Amino acid sequence: MVEVIKEMLLSPLGSFASVLSLFIAAFWLVHFVxxxxxxxxxxxxxxxxxxxxxxxxxxxxxxxxxxxxxTVDIIKTGVSPLAKSNSPMSLTQDGIEIAKKLKAPxxxxxxxxxxxxxxxxxxxxxxxxxxxxxxxxxxxxxxxxFLNSFDxxxxxxxxxxxxxxMAYYAPIFAIxxxxxxxxxxxxxxxxxxxxxxxxxxxxxxxx
Length: 207
Fold this sequence. Notes:
single chain; mainly alpha; two-stranded antiparallel ribbon; 2 domains; disordered C terminus; 77% helix
């Protein structure tokens, strides 16, 4: 190929015009390809942005569905053996015993830096009700975000051996995490009622 180009460059003027045309055509081709590549890249970025937004919406829907499914699982299997419904929520004797078997307090202690950071990023302020709700929903939807893979697998294996869904054990972790966070931030657990939207007006009126 090099020899052919060399011969064309050393040929008479008529042939040189052909070479010049060849270079012009090559330059135009490079410009055309570059332009099309830029357009494709731009279109790809737009599509990528739309896809990211769509994926975010899908993740939100999946989270809501997971929460609803987990809640239904809890209702079906019965949450009362593990947590008292009175406010502020607390563990029943069965919940305390299972927490000991799971070594849940030790798991939470090992993962506390991760847990505390997650709560502070996603809840922000010290609203007792919002913190409790976040702990409750977070442990039902995705307990793995609070625990490392080793501890999460231990809970999964325990749930499997007992024939229970993971969500059944969520109240244990929700209450223990809430209590430890309240203790760390010097928050009174009874403040939950004060910030509860359904009780707030009544509580403030009686104060």
